[in-house]
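Try this one yourself first.
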């Protein structure tokens, strides 16, 4: 992984196995590279790839629903399992508009803008949308068989133990994605 700019307000929370998680104020940045000589990574980066991220983590998510509106826009609903009940934190969900941007060169990104909606079918009444705000997935294609992923997200203010648990879950999710892509054989 190449060296990048750092300042005194930034901290590295995790750096192992070619995965780095940085924090700057309330913004987190997870960076990792993926290599696989058997596939053209750029060809698999679409809305199905975003759904795959969550499908690979069925122990974390109770339900993921992605409704594609067109080639560049979808809505997504993600209901986490009730992982923090023992800490008094209600079950969490993410609901938002997902936009895909492709510069037709070496960069594909997805931006999830949360929608504050309370009347969503099949979401428990006590569930809240408070842990993660906006998410941006950026994929820079280094070669046809290697890409760098940069995932930015914001967490709402929370106690340190919950912050640690959420960031650990996110690292676990993307380790699985990285391993899955690197092990695909076609």
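Now uncover the answer:
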């Amino acid at each position: 992984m190449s060296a990048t700019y750092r300042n005194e307000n930034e901290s590295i929370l995790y750096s192992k196995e070619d995965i780095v998680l940085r924090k700057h104020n309330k913004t987190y940045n997870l960076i990792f590279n993926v290599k696989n000589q058997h596939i053209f990574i750029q060809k698999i980066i679409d809305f199905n790839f975003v759904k795959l991220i969550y499908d690979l983590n069925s122990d974390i998510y109770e339900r993921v629903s992605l409704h594609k509106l067109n080639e560049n826009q979808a809505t997504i609903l993600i209901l986490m399992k009730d992982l923090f009940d023992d800490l008094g934190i209600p079950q969490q969900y993410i609901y938002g508009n997902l936009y895909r941007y492709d510069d037709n060169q070496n960069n594909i990104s997805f931006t999830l803008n949360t929608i504050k909606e309370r009347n969503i079918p099949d979401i428990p009444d006590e569930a809240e949308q408070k842990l993660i705000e906006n998410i941006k997935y950026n994929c820079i294609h280094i070669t046809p068989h290697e890409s760098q992923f940069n995932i930015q997200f914001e967490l709402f203010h929370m106690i340190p133990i919950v912050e640690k648990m959420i960031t650990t879950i996110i690292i676990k999710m993307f380790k699985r994605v990285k391993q899955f892509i690197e092990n695909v054989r076609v």
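Discussion: The CA atoms of residues 36 and 181 lie 7 Å apart. The chain has one domain: 10-183.
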